[in-house]
Amino acid sequence: MFRRLPEVSTEITIFFDDRAVVAAPGDSVAAALLAAGVTVFGVNRANDLPRAPRCLIGNCYECLVEIEGEGRRQACLVPVRDGMRVRTIAPEGDPAP
To answer: Does any domain span residue 97?
Structure first.
């Protein structure tokens, strides 16, 4: 399981597919989601397999999500902001329902 070392005292809230997720200031979207127990960020178009971050440095593109209405963003490269809205991307490239 992914967890922070040490635990944080300041928290902000983001929303992943309308679910509230507690994040720490300075987290990337990917780190915040992983720390909250989110293990699937979407579905791969080519093979319908679940997507999740692999490298966390922007090389693999497995963490693509929609952020604030802008699709196909790398969650590992975007810092969280309080109230941020993040959504999975469906295999055909449209936001998930």
So the answer is: no
The model carries a pTM of 0.87
Number of domains in the chain: 1
Q: Which domain holds residue 49?
A: 12-87
Q: What is the pLDDT along the chain (97 residues), one digit of tens a residue?
A: 677 777 778 899 999 999 999 999 999 999 999 999 999 999 888 888 899 999 999 999 999 999 999 989 999 999 999 999 999 987 665 555 4
Do 31 and 8 contact (CB within 8 A), yes or no?
no
The CATH number covering residue 59 comes to 3.10.20.440
